[in-house]
Design goal:
GO terms for molecular function: lyase activity. The chain is α/β, with parallel strands linked by helices. 41% of the residues lie in helices and 18% in strands. The strands form three sheets. Strands 2-8-7-6-5-3-4 form a seven-stranded mixed beta sheet, sandwiched between helices. α7 links the parallel β5 and β6. α1 crosses α11 and α3 crosses α10. The longest helix has 15 residues. The protein starts with a strand and ends with a helix. The structure holds pyridoxal-5'-phosphate.
């Protein structure tokens, strides 16, 4: 049995999800005529109390569209140095939006209101104009760490005072919300735009949704077209997403429980010096006396897959296709590695 913990994007549609996809009513979404896509966009926007949504092929696209909406020539985005938008989107901030980036540090991938305040450029001929703050929740490279709503409020008020836009890369926002029990509507009230991935923990084959105001989403639709992201009978994919929102949100807690157990199994291992606090479905282990490549090789020999995550770290992600039996096997196999 191969235990694949490289990412929560690896899941395959369940039987129920496939049936929902087969049964989808479809149309041409570029004409705005796919009823299932329209339903998905309205449903997610409604959940977060936001005006409108836009279904896109990937979370990279929803993030990059949001950045395009909120920036322009000679502007600057502030984000954490480990942000997905900066590290893992092919340098898109520059190539898609021609914006400059200011990278902040902070424990477990989170940035503080004071550091943000100190990083806003002055209204000065020498400086790029700061227009956007982008946050990530949960924070992938921070080990699936969570921002609480209370932590967002002071950041939101800085944005209001300085006329800045606030974007959330909420690829795994539902993972955070099931842990904190905070309401999606309270989160929706904090941000100008939110990107949510359906193809991660929620288990869909494809898709992300960008949420925002009607006016912003209208512009976003045009940007999506220019990025080549206008899809036709996308209702098959939207049907998977609607199914996931109805059946796969609460169960994210199971992934978190298994991730915590998995973290415990790694603690104290001779080749691991530290396991980041496990808050959601991501487990990051710092290695000691072995390179990530060699450790991954040892794991692979035992039928376990993970990924390199920095120069001395590896990452495991739990997901819909990782069950208790696999967790138990994981525990047995990891003991055999030395
Ligand atoms: C996966 C992910 C995305 C989007 O990735 P795609 O593969 O383009 O869908 C964005 N942000 C974070 C934090 C992610 O983990």
């Amino acid at each position: 049995m191969i235990i694949d913990l490289r990412s929560d994007t690896l899941t395959k549609p369940t039987e129920g999800m496939l049936q929902a996809m087969w049964a989808a009513e479809i149309g041409d979404d570029v004409f705005g005529e796919d009823p299932t896509v329209n339903t998905l966009e309205e449903k997610l926007a409604g959940m977060f109390g936001m005006e409108a949504g836009l279904f896109c092929p990937s979370g990279t696209m929803t993030n990059q569209i949001a950045i395009r909406l909120h920036t322009g020539l000679q502007t600057e985005v502030i984000c954490h140095k480990y942000s997905h938008i900066y590290l893992y989107e092919g340098g898109g901030i520059m190539s898609n939006s021609h914006a400059s980036v200011k990278l902040l540090d902070g424990k477990y991938g989170k940035i503080s209101p004071q550091d943000i305040l100190d990083s806003i450029n002055p209204d000065d001929v020498h400086a790029a104009e700061t227009t956007l703050i982008s946050l990530e929740n949960t924070m992938n490279k921070g080990g699936g760490s969570i921002y609480t709503l209370e932590e967002i409020k002071p950041i939101k008020s800085i944005c209001d005072q300085h006329g800045l836009k606030l974007h959330l890369d909420g690829a795994r926002l539902f993972n955070a919300l099931v842990e904190t029990n905070e309401s999606p509507k309270d989160w929706g009230a904090m941000f100008d735009t939110i990107s949510i991935c359906l193809s991660k923990g929620l288990g869909c084959p494809v898709g992300s949704v960008l949420l925002g105001t009607k006016a912003e989403i209208k512009r976003a639709r045009k940007v999506r077209k220019s990025f080549g992201g206008g899809m036709r009978q996308a209702g098959f994919l939207a049907a998977a997403a609607i199914y996931a929102l109805e059946h796969h949100v609460d169960r994210l807690k199971e992934d978190h429980t298994r991730a915590r157990e998995l973290g415990k199994m790694l603690e104290g291992h001779a080749l691991i010096s530290e396991v980041f606090p496990v808050m959601t479905n991501i487990v990051i282990a710092k290695l000691s006396g072995i390179s990530p490549t060699d450790m991954l090789q040892k794991l692979e020999e035992k039928g376990i897959k993970a990924v390199k995550f920095g120069k001395d770290q590896i990452r495991f992600v739990t997901h819909l296709d990782f069950n208790d039996e696999m967790l138990e096997r994981f525990g047995e196999r990891i003991k055999d590695i030395d």
